[in-house]
Amino acid sequence: MEFGLSEDQKLLQESVRGTLEKVSPLERVRKAAEAREDFVEDVWAALKDLGVPGMLVPEAHGGMGMALLDAALVAEMLGRYVAPVPFIATAVMAPIAIAGAGSKAQQEAWLPKLASGEAIAGVAIAEAASGAREGAGVTASGGRLSGKSLFALDAAKADVIVVADKAGGLYLVRGDTRGLTKVALTSIDLTRTLTELQFDNVDAEALSTGDSDATRRRVVDAGRVMLAADTLGAGWAMIDKAVEYAGERKQFGRVIASFQAVKHLCAEMAAELEPCRSLVWYAAHAFDAMPEEASLMAAHAKAHTAETGRFVARTATEVHGGMGFTDLLGLHYWFKRIGLDRQLLGSPERVRHEAAAMQGWVAAD
Amino acid sequence: MDLAYGPDYEAFRTQVRDFIAKNRDKAPKRFGVSRPSEESIAWQKLLIAHGLTARTIPKEYGGYGAEPDILKSRIIAEEFTAAKLPTGLANQGISMLVPTLLELGTEEQKKKWIEPTLKGEVVWCQGYSEPGSGSDLASLQTKATEDGDDFIINGQKIWTSTAHAADMIFCLVRTEPEAKKHEGISYLIFSMKTPGIEVRPLTTMTGHAEFNEVFFTDVRVPQKDIVAGRGQGWFVANATLKHERGMLGDPNQAGTRLKEIVDLMHEETVDGTRLIDHPVYRDRLMQLQARVFAMQFHGLRLLTAASKGEDPGIARLIVKLQGCELNHQLAALAIDALGEIGVLYGDSPHLRAHGSWQHRYMFDLGLIIGGGTAQIQKNIISERGLGMPREPKPAKA
Questions:
Q1: What is the DSSP letter of B130?
Q2: What is the pTM of this model?
Q3: Which residue in chain B is spatially nearest to A254 when comparing CA positions?
Q4: Which residues from A are below 8 Å from B298, CB to CB?
């Protein structure tokens, strides 16, 4: 019985931390956000050097064939450094979709390129994962897609996009296909792109090998675990910043970290967030080792970490006082990262409802 | 990451199951309210003989004498919980005094007290808190004045559970009035039958006398019954509190409680609709289920760290705060889901589960306060876990 990280996993996380510390400091994040860079080449190149894009791609296709827990450790660091790079779709959800439901030809066409980071993949699955807003949804007919999908992930510069239709299928669409229109959406979080995809009779290939329902489920589960891990990392960064700031800021002749009113806020943040780490680890481990528990644990990890993340984001900001509210410290990049994580792939209320249904606790209408 | 126990441990699990299958009819039906019943004592001795409790305590002191193995301890706990059997006695003598004596007692103290304590023959109470010394325990005023080979003790203790039934007390007393407050305390053990001790029951909000007040008037106790020397009491007590905080906030208790609520919400109805079908109650259940999972897995993480001898740092410091609060919130949901039925108590008609949800809701508030209040826990988390400075002492007027 061992519930913890291996030495390799600790090393992996430390090497990602060290790299991001160098290539994605706040100044770089701020520059990318302010210039609205939709692709931050230098940060992406550093992650390519570490092999991050290919972590989950099977070794037979040029990847590293690692576990979802390994990817979660990377996601945690990306959240910690509010790294302005594609990850959740191109390195996690799309490889799982293509490896799970792609034909041999589809796998050979895309997985090696995704693994090397030479190609980027987006995923448009918001309607299936968190419900359709404004009547969005994609309909497939004769290998062609019509309709629209909102809130596509990593899709801004994607060479290929995994699209979920209304009927439960998954499709591959090339980023430059005729009839596909990408509309950039601006969210509070300027470190990641969010895209509306409009499909006008667009040429698509079905990902239809094996059980595509199960693959869709796994794509969403994996994405939810990544968002939870991202919030975990961003939340701990905010706690660390709050503790550091409180240790420097003086009022009434002493550092504010010596006031219990301030210390207790920090203790509450740590006490609430640290158990989320175990929940994220367990959910990630279940994805590979205990598939019967995977969806429930992914849902709980997503929803609970989102709730805790919201508490940490506002509380850490309060500990910074007025400075936390300004743009000067850049604390809001973490606040907003956590804010976007919360709504993607299902807000807590919706995800908990799903988790109840998975256990047979929602009566059929 | 490997959640399997492996063949050696599974073989051990089989042994535990075999024991349970053969002996479950010997498990006590009546536990005794303050002192263990005869059946409980017989069960305790059987468990010790098979290494199922007092497992790592050396044989010479009445234990089983096994090497510490936290995974085996957990397997025993898992199997006894699954079989709904009691795992042996868990009183303050066993959970707090015995580890303290093992760590800091003299050979004579160990030989004299550990075995009868383990066997339930000697019952202990803990004399720490005083009316004026709760969170600031080190300010305690109960004084022990030298008189020949003895101390004469005067003062008052509070929150002393089982004092009315106890044979012995382990007690913090001020022996060095001139020393600094942390350095003037000694840890003394003595008989509750000593003349000059008066025990008054302290009824709590639950309606039960779960605690006592203990008054000492010229109580004469031999000086030799100090543990770890004069002025060392604060150090000894901290060694003991560490054992207590490990006991409070057990996540498996929360798991059991959650299952009871899931059953309750499937069985109980309001307006003919099952509570589980009420979306607001159900959402609260789901929020708490996530917290229970998080704390259970957090427990696995701490277990793994302990088995490797690693210090899990802040992860360990949050358990009492989070675990006690979670249990309290679970009881609150059960009460809210039951509505007016949830406030029935005592021997009322329509009572559910003997009124235990209200009892737990109230008693848990006591646990949130006791053993280091939630606010003291937050001081510990922020100071030791996050490295934040202590509140400066107010300037002397």
A1: B
A2: 0.94
A3: B392
A4: 274-275, 277-278
